[in-house]
Amino acid sequence: MASTDFAVDITEGRVLRRTPIALTEVRAARQALLEWFRDHARPLPWRRHPRPYAVWISEIMLQQTQVGTVIPYFNRFLRAFPNVRALARARRERVLELWSGLGYYRRSRDLHCAAQIIVRQFGGRFPRSYEAARSLPGVGDYTARSVLSIAYNLPFAVLDGNVARVVSRWRLLRGHVQETRFRQSVELVLEQCLSRRRPGAFNQALMELGQTVCLPRAPRCPVCPLRVGCGAYASGRPESYPEPRPRRRTEVRHLAVAAIRSDSKFALVRGLDESLLPDLWNFPSAFGASRETARRALLDKLSALLSPPPTLPAPRAEIRHSITHRSIRAQIYPVEMAAARRVHGLRWVPAWRLGEVARTGSAAVSALARKVAAAL
DNA sequence: GTCCAGCTTT
DNA sequence: AAAGCTGGAC
Which of A10, A34, A68, A363 could connect to A353 by a Cys-Cys bridge, CB 3.0–4.6 Å? Predict the structure, then answer.
């Protein structure tokens, strides 16, 4: 801990000064947090043998994705690619198959590419320096800090949404996660509190506390190790911190989906529509502002693919799905074809690969495609 | 139905 | 500043 009596941080030419947190308070909180983590850390698969490779894979998968969702993906992924060299020499399509259903598919491409860079430029070991780690595709500020602190126990503080929530409540910081000022305030607190001896455990403890105790809407203050000294708890309204971030409104879009079946195979194309899910196999689909415009756009698309184009019957089912700010209403038009002809850009995929079995990574299909298959 | 996870790239 | 995926909580 610095011996100055206030914390100073120079960011973009501005000097921020904040009242320091009393050293005794910092130490008490740090110790309470680390002891809580020692007793309550969940036995997550990437914590069993925390090699840098496993830590890195888990951090990429955990971006925007919940722990419970990640666990089976992580286990399958490490079975398929036990180390960075195995990942580096894998086919891209195979990596995508094992990512199928996890979302944000760009992550898998960047991960694969980064593995090849690690093998070629870093001797097959995840780099130990911030700059080198940051140079890898898919590794931004947060991921570089988390991997280096957890895998190598280097003194980097991490700031994710969980950490921001815990700290804003503990120190009663106003603002929301997207504001630079707010983030700087949180960072100042973290710099004062980070355990220099056990930064990895400290960071994981804060994030775990945010995930399991300091919950957004219903914090479990009675079991929180930071309750003593928590400003939001004292205020009586812990759920009011931090402020909700402004959100872009979601727009409803209609999607027409052709479920073209021949024998027990479905015709799939690469990509969805409007440049969404470009790497994934999907049922031929088209967006529109209404059901009817979507249907017509789908017919246009099918005309370019098949001649003569099939006629579309009445839709058999509607499913709902969300992609970023779009709320998608998908009408499914079942089409039977006599023979599974070879068509350029079309791939016939056995129905069983789209079911629950697909979770084992047998096809690079989106979750949307799986919902469609399940509705048939 | 709304909110939350909540990071990286362009 | 905006876009990208999916699932779960409430």
Answer: A363
Q: What is the pLDDT of residues A296-318, one digit of tens each?
A: 999 999 998 888 888 999 999 99
Cα separations (Å) of A92 from A72, A109, A111, A327?
Answer: 20, 7, 10, 30
Q: What is the 3-state secondary structure (H, E, C) of A300-330?
A: HHHHHHCCCCCCCCCCCEEEEEEECCEEEEE
A320: left (phi > 0), else alpha (psi -120 to 50), else beta? beta
Window 294-313 of chain A: CB closer than 7 A to strand C:
none
Q: How far is the CA of A248 from the C1' of C2 (A)?
A: 10
- Span A33-54, pLDDT tens digits: 999 999 999 999 999 888 999 9
Is the CB atom of residue A65 positioned under 7 angstroms from any atom of strand C?
Answer: yes
What torsion do the CA atoms of A163, A169, A175, A179 make, to the nearest 10 degrees? Answer: -10
Prediction pTM value: 0.91
Answer CATH for A7-240 from 3.30.300.130, 3.40.50.300, 1.10.340.30, 3.20.20.150? 1.10.340.30
